[in-house]
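Customer ticket, subject: "Can you confirm the structure for DUF192 domain-containing protein?"

Message body: Hello, I'm evaluating your service for our small team and ran a test protein. I'd like someone to confirm that this is what the system normally returns, since I don't have a reference to compare against.
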Amino acid sequence: MDKGKLLRGRDEVILEELLLPVSFWERFKGLLGKRCLPISSGMLFENCSSIHMLGMRIPLDIVFLDKHFKVVQLISQLAKNKFAMCRQAQHTLELSEGAIDHFQIALGQQLEIKRGKV
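Agent reply: Thanks for trying us out. I re-ran your input and got the following:
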């Protein structure tokens, strides 16, 4: 699995550890089985505009991003066994419950991915 950091603009680090699943199995598993997700961590599903919470143990905050990583939809505390999608989205970011408020992520914000070692 690749890793990186999530930034607001070019220099404000939001997430110190951004998981970037690449293979089919990494994307399939996602965060399944996790009992907790640190506020400083998240997972980005590129080329994905919908997610499901089947089998999840914890609620997540969901940020849908367009092809330029601009925030187009926010969902706080998506509960287990629920689904979410966004037609305008190209990518989906899964965050710890409460992260949207904690990091003050808002519609229209420009986020950036810095790939590489965390």
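A couple of notes from the result: The chain has two helices and nine strands. The helical segments are 24-29, 99-102. Feel free to reply with more questions.
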